[in-house]
Amino acid sequence: MNKRLLSALCAFVMAFGSAAALPEEFSQLSSTLTVSAEELDDYDYRYLDDGTVEIYGCFGSAPVATIPSQIDGKPVTSIGSYAFNENKYVKKVIIPEGVTNISEYAFKFCNNLETVILPDSLETIADNAFVCCDSMKDIVLPEGLVSIGESAFEYCESLTEINIPSTVKSIGIDAFSGCSSLKSFNIDEDCTICCSIDGVMYNKDVTKLYLCPVGKESVTIPETVNIINVNAFKQCNSIKELTLPESVTDIYEAAFEDCKSLETLNIKGTLKNIGNGAFRNCESLKSIDLKEGLISIDDDAFIGCDSLTYVELPSTLEYSGAGIFCACRGLKKVKINMSVYYINESAFEACTALESVEIPEGVTRLCWYAFCSCPSLKSIKLPRSIDNIGFRALGFDTDEDARFIDVEGFTIYGYKDTEAQYYAEENGLNFVDIENMPVRKKGDLNNNGKIDASDLLQVKSHIKKVKPLEGDDFDCADVDGNGAINAADLLKMKAHMKGVSDIWA
Question: What single-letter DSSP state applies at residue 125?
């Protein structure tokens, strides 16, 4: 049964302009207002199976909405889906005792809603109930509340703190995501599912960091934490530096997504797993230390991390997902030590500054688009173990119309009669047989058969960081083979030039 209703209270509010103008005795009764259907015509309501009433539509223009507690003697127990959807007039809502449920999208896009008074009887706030109420400043979650749904308060940008009562048993994903002014969670100490330390939400035994308030500027993570939860720091744009203690082993999906100011992540221990999109669009992140012991990196883990310049994948890595470093536009060098047998789809696609890639023997497959749209990558050395190269994995860029074009002068260095040669020939790319190349001697960077002033100049430029050496040039200049190019290498090259010693002997 559907009815349209407007409470007598709303008529008073419209006449007086605000709830504060109502007579005191009337405002005291307002939260338990009982009306008949004949007195009301600006709400939609229906009877539920249990004989109670659900309000599922409000069409008034009053700035204060007081929901009646009874209609024709039947208790109001629910605010229905989309009941106040996109109501641009309401600034304050008073929900009476007896209401146990606020349904999904009930107050979606109520952009002027500032205050909601919730009853102690409330048990459920459903998914997206208050999504995008960006003026909401004041809401007290009552003792007795059991469930807070997914995205329930997402993008409530004016909320500064949230209290979590002891009775809450579940909090959905993204419940408080995008609340850019939120600085603290105040959690009742008797709550059985979570606790707060310095305003950050953790599970009860502080082994999992559940959620950091989006407006938080700094966080010290306790040494007991093992897991950074799904979306834990999502959109925390005020945090520039963060330290993960030795205890942290797992970073879950989207944990740091869109942390656009995060520049430095200090990883004290050994991570084992990095989840899907964990650092997606962390555009200021300058470096990431992926230590030995890391087992898996899931899809899109570092996509859009434009400030990364160097990445080294450890030998312990057993799984690397698709697009893990896709569109990292500042990435210049990649060193792969991993024990996985393939580089997944679009792993380094659109890394437009990428110049050097080292792929070890043992890798067997380069999947579709693995290094596509990397126009600065002019050559690559492929091991003999490569037996499958996917569509446009190497040597191709895209033009402004998204059509594939060759990377000019792209060269594959590989072994004759292997997949490297077949791929190069099939796609019209240059191929050089590694076994027929002249052996390059240490220190002879210009490959003219001697060490001369030109070679010394290149090493000096590298040491002064004027023009860093990469790939084979780096290996050639690392005369003592210690993994670094420094003054010791320069001295040995000078001694060789003078005939004092022979570094080729």
Answer: E
